[in-house]
């Protein structure tokens, strides 16, 4: 903090508007001796001074003695969370200790897991794929938070890939209870139990065929290289490129293959097979858009890669059972040739982010930015990842599957939501080629946590945002992503409320400040921006926005109904995004009900209306109903949004509440409405076999179920590859239980029906590809609590000849010099080996392989460089 908070304005009035200080020393002296009361006394004068003294075009020069002092420090104000964060993930030392414990583990028969180091493991070995905190039971947390109970026991969720087991298995365990300090020593001394984790799944056994990434892609790459090598000349001729590094090459990345494979999911229906459609695509920037007219369907079911085989291949709508058959048609001249792709790789720049086109007027200037002249207005406990702002407070946690979650979300001291967490992000494609029509991505499986990227300061988040790290412990070792989460306050740029009137107290406005928590995941082609925005009236806006590359397809006339041409031979494919969120509401306690409000039309006859308009009055009326049965709580928003869904506590009324026996519904029960924002959609296609049971949450706008420890998530890591028999079948949550005055969870979808357009090229825009829902108080309060805000103005109507005066509650915006912006920097991913030693920084191609995974399968013979995980030397 500077000793001159606002030298110019605070001091000048004593000496008249034109007076200027001669020396800084005097200013210091003055600041130190004048009391706060004196500042307030002069406040009205100051405001007028501002407009007079700082005229348009006046620029303070270096030797101007009234150069403002420095603004208050903008770094976060440290705080201590009221309780420890019981959801926080393990740090690197804790994860290493747990990993060591697993390595040394022996069961009652003296058998261990025979784990292979994650660095070297292939699908055929046993290895650790996840170590993560497991959320404690809510009852334990509430006892700790609300009734001074013990801090809940901690458990670790462990996922093992057991490629050596017979049959091979994906095994999940809970390890615990963990000692309060986790180290090799404390773990070996603790009475730990390793129990199978089953209770959170409707189908607990996960078949090995449903695994997502190969632990080591070398087998897949070798297999594909074997398939494609004989087609080298044909692809060069037909597609303008080759797959693989070519014969004998193989070791260098300097001349990478010009063609790659992109794979689809699901790999299976119920686990009985593991098959993949692979489309060839150009290996140039924006490769996702540059799909080529050749597709392969391969069977990768066997645990022996030698038994993998090609099922069929498709070129220009001609189907071939083998590559030989294709080659024969190619050589004997019966092959119907497709057009050649758009342009040679070397000329490809249209899909990159380099600036394009002509400069716009004045665009050489930097645009405006927000500055907190008076310093930040939020507090953070960085160790406990706890944040508070303007009456709001919450904890953060971070996990492999879906990244960020918010916990114990309170407004003015009252818990509103126990948990806010994204559950699944689904993308379903259509098309007239094998790839599009078979693609259903469920991004939980790929890991929206491990694909969370460092944020670009000044672009992804404002310059002043506080950046927080995120940590995961997976088959890639520990990934510590700096600047993964940003939190910041912003001016919404509009008043939250306002009015102009003429009686006392009628005129004024409240500033619409908001507090945002943001992360961005780049899952292959797409970038998903997760936003949680807290507002002064108690509203939380949950929003998802998308950018990055469309999934492209090869254009021909038959694709007209399934997308939009964005280039001569490329198109964007039509698809639905549905992103499911869990909102565990606790409205005035955990006993909550779902009130469905609908607007109905009625015709009434009222004695006071007579002939000129007729006696019939047609009008709308509000019909309130409590949905009492879970089976009736799979819901769509009413047509034309004629209604609302509100989570209420029927036993807790606001000041105006009352009870009517007739309807047995408490009016003005305290509640929070689930208010649809932008594009509150659900899935269009409800009957596909590829989405049969694994995305049932996506088939309704929202659903409300009784909260259960056994139903923590609407999806699972492996739902993606098991549409017919998923580990979590959401419909099984809805089994006819009462949901009246019970602890309730609302499962709400956001999404977009993405109809591609040329302007999605090179990348999709976050202004249109966005969806939101607002959780907003509905008789939760007795009036608008944002009226508490001091950042508000009350105007007094003047008498003739006088001026309007404004009362701003004594809140003054400092006139000060904001700190210089830091030089651009972008953090390098910090990695740790499984033993906790720091990992080596990755090379570009290694980062790319990690990030694009099944989207960019290089057919390669080079085992050493082919592992799709963090690099090691
Ligand atoms: C991937 O697996 C192959 C075959 O077992 C092995 O030779 C290679 O070392 C592995 N790669 C890495 C990076 O571990
Ligand atoms: C343990 O795993 C290694 C490597 O995966 C394997 O070679 C060995 O046979 C396994 N041992 C047993 C007892 O299964
Ligand atoms: C590819 O073409 C070259 C040159 O025409 C020829 O030497 C080579 O044998 C061909 N390879 C295959 C696999 O047909
Ligand atoms: C050319 O090859 C295709 C594919 O094997 C075959 O079906 C067709 O009969 C062949 N035609 C001639 C004229 O050889
Ligand atoms: C309504 O409120 C009263 C008093 O708070 C409470 O006893 C009752 O259970 C509530 N619910 C209904 C359906 O009346
Ligand atoms: C909910 O509805 C189902 C189906 O109508 C019924 O079987 C069940 O008993 C109901 N549950 C309760 C708690 O009333
Ligand atoms: Cu999209």
From TrEMBL:
Domain Copper amine oxidase catalytic residues, every copy: 369-787
Keyword Oxidoreductase: yes
Residue list for modification 2',4',5'-topaquinone: 526
Residues in DUF1965 domain copies: 293-357
EC number(s) given by UniProt: 1.4.3.-
Cofactor note: Contains 1 topaquinone per subunit.
InterPro entries named in the record: Cu_amine_oxidase, Cu_amine_oxidase_C, Cu_amine_oxidase_C_sf, Cu_amine_oxidase_N-reg, DUF1965
Post-translational changes noted in the entry: Topaquinone (TPQ) is generated by copper-dependent autoxidation of a specific tyrosyl residue.
Group of enzyme by EC: oxidoreductase
Active site per UniProt: 443 (proton acceptor), 526 (schiff-base intermediate with substrate)
Biased composition (Basic and acidic residues): 350-367
Gene Ontology terms: biological process: amine metabolic process
Disordered: annotated span: 335-376
GO cellular component, one term: plasma membrane
Transmembrane segments: 26-46
Cofactor requirement: Cu cation
Family of the protein in this entry: Belongs to the copper/topaquinone oxidase family.
PANTHER family reported in the protein's UniProt record: AMINE OXIDASE, COPPER AMINE OXIDASE
The protein's name: Amine oxidase
């Amino acid at each position: 903090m500077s000793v001159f908070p606002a030298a110019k304005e605070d001091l000048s009035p004593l000496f008249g508007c034109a007076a200027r200080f001669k020396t800084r020393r005097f200013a210091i002296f003055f600041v130190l001796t004048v009391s706060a009361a004196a500042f307030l006394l002069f406040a009205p004068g100051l405001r007028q001074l501002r407009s007079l003294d700082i005229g348009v075009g006046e620029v303070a020069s270096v030797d101007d003695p009234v150069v403002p002092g420095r603004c208050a420090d903008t770094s976060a104000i440290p705080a201590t969370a009221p309780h420890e964060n019981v959801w926080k993930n393990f740090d690197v030392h804790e994860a290493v200790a747990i990993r060591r414990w697993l390595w040394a583990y022996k069961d009652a028969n003296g058998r261990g897991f025979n784990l292979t180091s994650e660095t070297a493991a292939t699908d055929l070995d046993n290895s650790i794929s996840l170590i993560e905190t497991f959320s404690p039971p809510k009852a334990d947390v509430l006892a700790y938070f609300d009734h001074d109970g013990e801090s809940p026991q901690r458990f670790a969720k462990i996922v093992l890939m057991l490629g050596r087991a017979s049959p091979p298995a994906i095994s999940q365990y809970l390890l615990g209870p963990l000692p309060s300090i986790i180290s090799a020593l404390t773990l070996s001394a603790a009475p730990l139990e390793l129990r199978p984790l089953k209770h959170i799944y409707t189908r607990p056994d996960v078949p090995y065929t449903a695994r997502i990434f190969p632990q080591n892609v070398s087998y897949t790459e070798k297999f594909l290289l074997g398939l494609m090598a004989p087609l080298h000349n044909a692809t060069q001729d037909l597609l303008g490129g080759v797959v693989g590094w070519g014969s004998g090459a193989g070791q260098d990345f300097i001349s990478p293959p010009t063609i790659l494979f992109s794979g689809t999911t699901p790999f299976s229906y119920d686990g009985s097979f593991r098959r993949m459609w692979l489309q060839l695509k150009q290996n140039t920037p924006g490769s996702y858009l540059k799909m080529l007219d050749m597709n392969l369907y391969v069977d990768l079911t066997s645990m022996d890669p030698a038994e993998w085989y090609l099922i069929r291949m498709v070129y220009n709508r001609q189907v071939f059972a083998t590559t030989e058959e294709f080659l024969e048609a190619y050589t004997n001249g019966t092959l119907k040739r497709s057009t050649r792709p758009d342009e040679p790789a070397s000329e490809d720049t249209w899909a990159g982010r380099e600036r394009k086109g002509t400069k716009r007027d004045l665009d050489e200037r930097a645009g405006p930015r927000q500055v907190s002249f008076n310093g930040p207005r939020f507090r953070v406990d960085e160790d406990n990842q706890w944040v508070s702002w303007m009456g709001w407070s919450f904890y953060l946690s971070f996990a492999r599957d879906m990244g960020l979650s918010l916990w114990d979300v309170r407004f003015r001291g009252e818990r509103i939501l126990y948990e806010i967490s994204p559950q699944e992000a689904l993308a379903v494609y259509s098309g007239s080629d094998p790839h599009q029509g078979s693609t259903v991505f469920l991004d939980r499986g790929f890991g929206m946590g491990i694909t969370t990227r460092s944020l670009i300061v000044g672009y992804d988040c404002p310059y002043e945002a506080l950046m927080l790290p995120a940590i995961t412990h997976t088959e890639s070792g520990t990934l510590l992503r700096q600047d993964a989460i940003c939190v910041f306050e912003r001016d919404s740029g509009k008043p939250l409320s306002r009015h102009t009137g003429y009686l006392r107290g009628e005129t004024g406005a409240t500033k619409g400040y908001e507090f945002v928590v943001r992360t961005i995941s780049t899952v292959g082609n797409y970038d998903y921006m997760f936003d949680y925005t807290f507002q002064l009236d108690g509203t939380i806006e949950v929003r998802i926005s998308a950018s990055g590359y469309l999934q492209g397809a090869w254009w021909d006339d038959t694709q007209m109904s399934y997308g939009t041409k964005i280039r001569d031979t490329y198109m964007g494919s039509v698809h639905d995004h549905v992103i499911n969120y869990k909102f565990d509401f606790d409205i005035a306690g955990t006993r909550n009900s779902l009130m469905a409000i609908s607007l109905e039309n009625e015709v009434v006859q009222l004695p006071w209306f007579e002939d000129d308009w007729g006696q019939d009055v047609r009008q709308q009326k509000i019909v309130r109903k409590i949905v009492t049965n879970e089976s009736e709580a799979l819901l769509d928003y009413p047509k034309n949004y004629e209604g609302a869904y509100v989570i209420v506590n029927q036993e807790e009324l606001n000041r105006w509440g009352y009870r009517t026996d007739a309807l047995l519904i408490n009016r003005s029960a305290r509640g929070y409405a689930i208010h649809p924002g932008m594009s509150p959609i659900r899935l269009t296609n409800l009957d596909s076999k590829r989405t049969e049971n694994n995305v049932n949450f996506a088939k309704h706008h929202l659903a409300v179920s009784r909260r259960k420890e056994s139903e923590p998530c609407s999806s699972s890591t492996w739902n993606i590859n098991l549409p017919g028999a998923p580990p979590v079948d959401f419909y099984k949550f809805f089994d006819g239980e009462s949901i009246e005055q019970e602890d309730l969870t609302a499962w709400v979808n956001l999404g977009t029906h993405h109809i591609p357009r040329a302007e999605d090229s090179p990348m999709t825009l976050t202004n249109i590809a966005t969806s939101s829902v607002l959780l907003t108080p509905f008789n939760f309060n007795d009036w608008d609590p944002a009226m508490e805000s001091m950042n508000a103005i009350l105007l007094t109507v003047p008498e003739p000849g006088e001026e309007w005066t404004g009362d701003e509650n004594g809140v003054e915006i400092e006139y000060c010099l904001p700190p210089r912006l830091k030089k651009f920097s972008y953090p390098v991913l910090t990695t740790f080996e499984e033993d906790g030693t720091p990992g080596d920084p990755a090379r570009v191609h290694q980062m790319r392989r990690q990030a694009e995974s099944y989207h960019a399968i290089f057919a390669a013979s080079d085992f050493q460089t082919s592992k799709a995980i963090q690099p090691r030397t």
